[in-house]
């Protein structure tokens, strides 16, 4: 919106600073701690190529003789590898940073895809109703009756068989985003549809129709902003779920190949060495995964409390 | 030619229990700059009539017959695109509850500018200027500030002023106001009504005022339409209807006004309640509650029970009542004589 010459509307920052959201954040130390950890993890993961001492994808930087070195607090560790090394001699810290990056990219990518499909379908189903609603919601039911794992196995197998393992490794990230994104869109569609049904009967929607706005404009500009709170809340849950799904798929060998490990494939790669005493290869990426998902879930919990109008009157 | 000509409008709702007729054979006209009141009890079909004028009846309702001629074009037959150009632009509407009519997540300015941009090719800056102008016309204090506020930051009266400003934004020919003051407290009601009246007169906008408040109708409108159970039962100049109502139902409504009862006594009331639309009695829909539908022997008159009364002209009013027809046939009232 353009600023008038006569007035200066309050800036977005001022609005945010005075908002209930920010007020509640200031008074909730769990949310603050989670937010700080989340920001640190995300920025560390995104900055992995600069933070990590080696590039675990580049085999020329890896020394096989340094394999299975323990983390720094155990005797026999090497100062070069603060969190030890895995069975191939890769620096654990570096692989975890890179792995978290892959996990987060897949998690966010899949959720964005879910949201795009789910929100659009939910809006259409809720606003147009009738046959469109029935069709889209049955589609959602059918989609939900396939488990993510099953879809991933089928799609992955077909893709590998058609294009070969090398092409699969190249496009694995994209493929996982597609699989997890397509498998979970009904969550969004159902939530959005329910809120749209509630919003549609409100008078401002009638008023918008009286104003002569088109259906598309009413849906995306008038109704959608009023359904954002539940969308935000399920987004946090969905990001955590997508990261776990990806880890599960990779752990089963259906996700990221070990040459481009995500947290899930790191856990899997160390699994064989668990009994030989090299527990850190599995446990460290596992701990990172747990903390990441926990932090996201706690933030989502806080957000749900803030955005649920039944819990406060503002 | 009248600006708006509604004739024989028939609106039905296809419900699971069967079809309900919400409007039956509703006809009226509205001239440019004229103010028409539509009165009736809750459920008489007033709001359905308002929505139908904009052809905005939502499923399961539909227009089963009749026509709505606006500037000679039949709104019941127009394509959606053409209708969207008329809505808001030439015919706009004011709703009952100002708390609900504004979108809670958009600022006042965003809503006004969006509305202008939807109908005109216009730059944001110009649109903002027009919006500001309209806010000044509805006497909103510090309008520049209001443009950047959200609806929840404003009081009810202020919001209704903004809604009036939005209704006037595109200089419409007709404003349909569906109980515009019901949700406001009494002192503000009077302010809002006089503002609406002032603006309609100033801009020569025709007003359809839907209300159950006969006091408001008598102050604001020139002509009045009384509805009962989906039908128009009486229409004519407001002054004649208020001073000399012909239809027993209208008489009952006027007698029920608090100022018609002597102080300290109980208010006059019409016995019974309006039947639900699905159970509208045959004949004159009002006959079970009507004091005149019984004959000397205490029996319900046959014509009231069985025949839908046709309009008869009495003075300048048109009345649908068998009793009035008899009176008029016996002793014709010439137009103009009644007032």
Automatic annotation (TrEMBL), chain A:
Entry keyword annotation includes Transport: yes
Membrane-spanning parts: 29-52, 102-127, 139-159, 223-244, 279-300
Major localization listed first in the record, in broad terms: membrane
Annotated Gene Ontology cellular component terms: plasma membrane
Domain ABC transmembrane type-1 positions: 100-300
Pfam families: BPD_transp_1, OppC_N
PROSITE patterns: ABC_TM1 (PS50928)
Family, as annotated: Belongs to the binding-protein-dependent transport system permease family.
Keyword field: Cell membrane, Membrane, Transmembrane, Transmembrane helix, Transport
One example of a Gene Ontology biological process annotation: transmembrane transport
Listed name of the protein: Peptide/nickel transport system permease protein
Protein topology in the membrane: Multi-pass membrane protein
Cell compartment(s), UniProt: Cell membrane
InterPro entries linked to this entry: BP-dependent_transpt_permease, MetI-like, MetI-like_sf, OppC_N
TrEMBL record, chain B:
Keywords, alphabetical: ATP-binding, Cell membrane, Membrane, Nucleotide-binding, Transport
Membrane topology of the entry: Peripheral membrane protein
InterPro entries: AAA+_ATPase, ABC_Ni/Peptide_Import, ABC_transporter-like_ATP-bd, ABC_transporter-like_CS, Oligopep_ABC_C, P-loop_NTPase
Catalyzed reactions: a dipeptide(out) + ATP + H2O = a dipeptide(in) + ADP + phosphate + H(+)
One annotated GO biological process: peptide transport
Location(s) in or outside the cell: Cell inner membrane
Top EC class of this enzyme: translocase
Keyword Lipid metabolism: no
GO molecular function term, any single one: ATP hydrolysis activity
Pfam families registered for this protein in UniProt: ABC_tran, oligo_HPY
Single GO cellular component term: plasma membrane
Domain ABC transporter: 6-254
NCBIfam families per the UniProt record, alphabetical: oligo_HPY (TIGR01727)
Record-stated family: Belongs to the ABC transporter superfamily.
Designated name of the protein: ABC-type dipeptide transporter
Species of provenance: Modicisalibacter muralis
């Amino acid at each position: 919106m353009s600023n008038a010459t006569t007035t200066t509307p309050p800036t977005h920052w001022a609005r945010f600073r005075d908002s209930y959201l920010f007020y509640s954040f200031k008074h909730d130390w769990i949310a603050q701690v989670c937010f700080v950890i989340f920001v640190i993890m995300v920025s560390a993961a995104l900055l992995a190529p600069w933070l990590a001492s080696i590039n675990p994808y580049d085999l020329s930087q890896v020394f096989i003789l340094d394999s299975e070195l323990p983390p720094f607090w155990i005797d026999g560790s090497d100062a070069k590898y603060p969190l030890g090394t895995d069975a191939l001699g890769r620096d654990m810290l570096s692989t975890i940073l890179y792995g978290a990056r892959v996990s987060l990219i897949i998690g966010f990518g899949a959720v964005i895809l879910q949201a795009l499909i789910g929100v659009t379908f939910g809006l259409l189903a809720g606003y147009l109703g009738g046959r469109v609603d029935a069709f889209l919601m049955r589609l959602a039911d059918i989609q939900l009756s396939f488990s993510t794992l099953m879809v991933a196995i089928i799609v992955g197998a077909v893709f590998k068989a058609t294009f070969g393992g090398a092409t699969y490794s190249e496009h694995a990230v994209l493929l996982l985003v597609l699989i997890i994104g397509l498998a979970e869109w009904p969550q969004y569609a159902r939530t959005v549809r329910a809120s749209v049904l509630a919003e549609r009967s409100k008078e401002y929607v009638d008023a918008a129709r009286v104003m002569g706005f088109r259906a598309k404009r009413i849906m995306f500009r008038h109704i959608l902003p009023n359904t954002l709170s539940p969308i935000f809340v399920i987004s946090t849950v969905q990001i955590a779920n997508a990261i776990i799904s990806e880890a599960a798929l990779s752990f089963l060998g259906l996700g990221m190949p070990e040459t481009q490990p995500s947290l899930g494939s790191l856990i899997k790669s160390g699994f064989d060495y668990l009994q030989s005493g090299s527990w850190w290869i599995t446990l460290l990426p596992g701990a990172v995964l747990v903390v990441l998902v926990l932090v996201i879930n706690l933030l989502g919990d806080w957000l749900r409390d803030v955005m649920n109008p039944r819990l406060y009157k503002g | 030619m009248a600006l708006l000509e509604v004739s024989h409008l028939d609106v039905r709702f296809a419900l699971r229990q069967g079809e309900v007729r919400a409007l039956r054979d509703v006809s009226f006209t509205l001239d440019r700059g004229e103010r028409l009141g539509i009165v009736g009890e809750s459920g008489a079909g007033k709001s359905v009539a308002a929505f139908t004028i904009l052809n905005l009846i939502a499923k399961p309702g539909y227009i089963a017959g009749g026509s709505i001629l606006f500037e000679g074009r039949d709104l019941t037959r127009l394509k959606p695109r053409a209708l969207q150009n008329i809505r808001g632009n030439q015919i706009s509407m004011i709703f009952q509850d100002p708390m609900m009519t504004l979108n809670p997540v958009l600022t006042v300015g965003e809503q006004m500018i969006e509305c202008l941009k939807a109908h005109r090719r216009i730059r944001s800056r110009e649109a903002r200027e027009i919006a500001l102008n309209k806010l000044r016309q509805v006497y909103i204090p510090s309008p520049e500030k209001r443009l950047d506020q959200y609806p929840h930051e404003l009081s009810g009266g202020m919001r209704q002023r903004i809604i009036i400003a939005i209704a006037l934004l595109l200089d419409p020919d007709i404003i349909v106001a569906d109980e515009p003051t019901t949700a406001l407290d009494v002192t503000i009601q009077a302010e809002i009504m006089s503002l609406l009246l002032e603006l309609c007169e100033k801009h020569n906008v025709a007003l359809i005022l839907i209300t159950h408040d006969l006091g408001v109708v008598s102050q604001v409108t020139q002509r009045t339409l009384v509805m009962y159970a989906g039908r128009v039962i009486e229409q004519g100049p407001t002054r004649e209807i208020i001073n000399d109502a012909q239809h027993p139902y209208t008489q009952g409504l006027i007698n029920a006004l608090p100022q018609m009862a002597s102080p300290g006594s109980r208010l006059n009331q019409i016995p019974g309640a309006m039947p639900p639309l699905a159970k509208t009695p045959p004949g004159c829909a009002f006959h079970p509650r009507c004091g005149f539908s019984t004959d000397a022997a205490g029996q319900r008159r046959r014509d009231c029970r069985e025949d839908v009364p046709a309009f008869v002209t009495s003075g300048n009013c048109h009345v649908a009542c068998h009793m009035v027809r008899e009176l008029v046939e016996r002793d014709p009232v010439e137009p103009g004589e009644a007032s």
